[in-house]
Write a structure and sequence with these properties.
With 250 residues, the protein is an alpha/beta fold. It has helices at residues 29-45, 76-85, 101-107, 124-127, 135-143, 145-154, 160-165, 178-190, 194-205, 208-227, 230-241, and strands spanning 5-11, 14-19, 50-55, 90-94, 97-99, 111-114, 119-121, 158-159, 171-172.
C-alpha cells in the first residue's frame, strides 16, 4: 500500500482504510488512487464485508489543494470513479471538515457517521470554481435536488446536527466515538449475508460508476473554464485570508 493509505483490521469482516495527509488531508490523484487500490485489494482478499473509510488529523478532508495547477488535471477523476466502482460497502467516519472535494470523498461512501463538530460544505462557488468529484450525481441522491442546489449555490457550511437533519450524514454521535460508531455500523452490515448485501448494493447503485465518469468529465471541463478567472483567484485568496470574497464576475 501507499505510505499515505493503510489498512487495519477493525472487527471481524470489517477493515479500516485510513488516509493520512494531516492535518487537512488535501488530496490529489495519487492519494485517491491509493484509496481505490485498498478497496480493490480488500475485495480480492474475500474476507472483508464492509470498509470504514477514515483519516488521520484534524479534518476528514479539506478537498484538493488549489495552490498551483488545476487539481482536475491528470487522472484525479479517473481515480475517483474507481471508488464508486468498487464492490464493498463503505462507511465514512467524518471528523472535522469535509469540504469541497472532501465532501465528494465523503459522498463516495455508502454512509457517513459524523459528530456535532463535523462540518460539511460544497464551498466551490465561494471559491469561484465549479464543483467536482461527481457531486453533480452524489449530492442530489443524498439530500435531494432542491437542497443540493442551495448547498452548491451558497456554499453554506453545515455542522453535524444540520447535516444529520437533511440526511447528509446518517448517524450523529459524540466526536470521541466517531470511529467506534462507524465500525459498529459496518459490523451491522457485515452481519448480513455478504452475497445478499453485494447483490442489493449492485441493484441500488445501478450505473452509478458510469454516471460519475460522465459527470466528472463535464465537471472537469467547467472547472478548467473557471480556473483562470479573476473570481477564482479572488475566491482562493479570500479563503486563505479568512475574509469574505469580493467577486467581480470576471
Amino acid at each position: 500500500m501507499s505510505e499515505e493509505v493503510s489498512i487495519h483490521q477493525a472487527a471481524e469482516h470489517v477493515m479500516l482504510v485510513e488516509f493520512s495527509r494531516p492535518p487537512h488531508n488535501y488530496f490529489d490523484g495519487a492519494l485517491i488512487g491509493a484509496i481505490a487500490d485498498a478497496y480493490e485489494q480488500l475485495e480480492r482478499a474475500g474476507s472483508c464485508r464492509a470498509i470504514v473509510l477514515c483519516s488521520e488529523g484534524k479534518n476528514f478532508c479539506a478537498g484538493a489543494n488549489f495552490a498551483g495547477k488545476n487539481p482536475a488535471e491528470g487522472d484525479l477523476y479517473e481515480q475517483a470513479a474507481r471508488l464508486f466502482a468498487a464492490g464493498l460497502p463503505v462507511v465514512a467516519a467524518v471528523q472535522g471538515a469535509a469540504v469541497g472535494g472532501g465532501l465528494g470523498v465523503a459522498l463516495s461512501a455508502d454512509f457517513r457517521v459524523a459528530g456535532p463538530d463535523s462540518r460539511f460544505s460544497a464551498n466551490f462557488a465561494r471559491l469561484g470554481i465549479h464543483h467536482g468529484f461527481g457531486i453533480t450525481v452524489t449530492l442530489p441522491l443524498v439530500v435531494g435536488a432542491q437542497r443540493a442546489l442551495e448547498l452548491l449555490y451558497t456554499g453554506v457550511r453545515l455542522r453535524g446536527e444540520d447535516a444529520h437533519r437533511i440526511g447528509l450524514c446518517d448517524r450523529l454521535v459524540g466526536g470521541d466515538r466517531l470511529r467506534e460508531e462507524a465500525v459498529a455500523l459496518a459490523e451491522e452490515i457485515a452481519a448480513s449475508s455478504p452475497l445478499a448485501v453485494r447483490s442489493i448494493r449492485r441493484t441500488m447503485r445501478g450505473d452509478l460508476a458510469e454516471r460519475i465518469r460522465e459527470a466528472t468529465a463535464h465537471e472537469a471541463a467547467e472547472q478548467a473554464n473557471l480556473f483562470g478567472t479573476s473570481d477564482f483567484r479572488e475566491g482562493v485568496s479570500a479563503a486563505a485570508e479568512r475574509r469574505p470574497p469580493r467577486f467581480t464576475g470576471s
